[in-house]
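Late entry, written up from scratch paper. The run itself happened at the end of the previous shift, but nothing got recorded in the book at the time, so transcribing now.
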Amino acid sequence: MRIIFMGTPDFAAASLKALLDAGKQVVAVVTQPDKPKGRGKQLQPPPVKKLAEEFHLPVLQPTSIRTEEFFRTLQGLRPDCIVVVAYGKILPPEILELPPKGCINVHASLLPYYRGSAPIHWSVINGETETGVTTMFMDQGMDTGDMILKKRLAIGPDDTVGVVHDRLAVLGAELLIETIDLLEKGLAPRTPQDHTLATYAPMLKKEHEVIRWDQSARDIHNHVRGMNPWPGTYTTWEGKVLKIWRTRVPEARPVKAAPGTVLEAASSGILVQTGQGQILITELQLQGNKRMEVEPFLRGKQISPGTVFGREGAEQQ
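Output as recorded:
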């Protein structure tokens, strides 16, 4: 079966590698254009391109997938199936209808829950204890197509989005191979989604990074781990951005203090009052400095009890 693979980040690279390791016939790879990164703004290829070049596969990087020229190129490749994994753009109807066996998507949630561009982040931020991956036949809606297979994954109470992402990338790759095997045999099931149960995982914006100290300690903890390692959460302290990377939720104690107030600052962590209970910051990063654990941080900086994080209001911008 002739397969065109469309994907861009590390999550997609895991699925492409699985196809190649399984001996599937990938005739071309479509990925996003190289983008400038780092201080020197050097153009960097996406992970999927790097992998494709290692295997000497043809790579297409169109700036637009809606041109007649690009469609003709895909037509000339005569795909039986197009596999789409975190490509980053919505496919037009003519591409969706091109391969006779359909366009197959690997989505990092248990559909119809968490449709959209950031399902892994939002599942952790919302404190879910379970997520998973779903393969589906793509249609013109956003993650609305008929489902093929699902696999579930537990989320631990301290798992970061990075940890969950890496586990789901492996799970998604395994599920894709199972799906392609069924598709080749003409045995792939089609299960319509219950659209009344749909929830959404919108693209992350700058305002989503801001810690709201009036939330409960548990919600803030979920927020922090749901944005680690990217893009991170932050508050402000003495007019500077203070990124919070790791936290714990200790047993709550009765304290009368405004949310965001530092109660203790010790080598074990910085204890902060929230809207409900307290949270212990164990890893953080002040603007212009490296990410570090609390003990070395406090050796160079003094944070006194009574300090109120976020008071400057920079996070409201």
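The first strand starts at residue 2 and ends at 7.
(Scratch paper discarded after transcription.)
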